[in-house]
Amino acid sequence: MTKALCCLVVACAVAAGCSGSGTDLVPTAKHLDELVNAHDMDGFAAALADNVTSTGPDGVTHTGRDSVRGWLAHMIPGFHVDSRGWEQSGDTVKWMSTIRSDAFAKFGVNPIKTNTYAVFSGSKVVRFMATFDRETANKMRFMQFYADVVNGGNIDATDKYLSDDFVEHQPLPPGVPKGRDGVKAFFTMAHEAFPDLHGTPTLVLADGDMVLVWGTWEGTNKGKFMGQPATNKKLTWEVADVVRIVDGKATEHWGVDNMAQAMMAAHRK
Questions:
Q1: 75, 90 Cβ separation under 8 angstroms
Q2: pLDDT in tens, 198-253
Q3: Could you tell me the CA-to-CA distances from 202 to 51, 174, 193, 205, 236 in Å, in that order?
């Protein structure tokens, strides 16, 4: 009897360890979605511990209730989350979400999909983390390239986004080197010819490790480009890019654009 009782006590202890406090935390996790969908930042903040830490899909970690609230607040316009697949293990709840927000729409990536988990202490969230699924992560990686290199003109940042063995399939101007150095040379010339170059993604699609971006580019043509003299006019043209992204870096690129046609048309006017 004593042995059987000991076994029962151990079994209960193991079960308690597997379920944390024994509290069903899934309804509490679901309530987080209800709060943000209602744009109730006060209610959401009240669900967080004072020392909460949160890591967003961009990899940035925020510490403290006010910091986490501020991070989420900038995404609230147009925000809506639909979640599914809640699973609890001890004090941790994991689930998957599809999220819409005006902030994502500005990047041409809306909605996004995340894998999310929250760690609770009692009823308060002490750790919160959301990570992109692979296709969303690849789309956002390309959007970061747009922000840094296409629009920001940070040519050196190219190394962060392109692999060492990067292959360029799009024909480049004569004299431009192959591979990653060719991309750097192209954007150096493009920003010299169009000092205010800006690209706006209008369609972003992903399938496996492939990402397609259709965008509208514009800029004031102040210098010659691809053998054509400057037009000194504001030009707009369409660009389509397809990249293969592996482990966060582009390994291949295919692209087409009508920049040259836009320049020739401006010269004829």
A1: no
A2: 999 988 899 999 999 999 999 999 998 877 889 999 999 999 999 999 988 999 99
A3: 39, 30, 23, 10, 14
Instruction: Quote the CA–CA distance of 183 and 191 in Å, as a whole number.
Output: 12
CB atoms within 10 A of CB 47: 20
E-strand spans in the chain?
Answer: 48-55, 61-63, 80-89, 92-100, 112-121, 124-132, 162-168, 198-207, 210-220, 234-246, 249-257
- Check if the beta carbon of residue 65 is closer than 8 Å to that of residue 47: no
* Per-residue model confidence as pLDDT tens digits over 47-89: 999 999 998 776 789 999 999 998 888 888 899 999 999 999 9
Tell me which DSSP letter residue 150 carries.
I
3: number of Cβ within 10 Å = 7
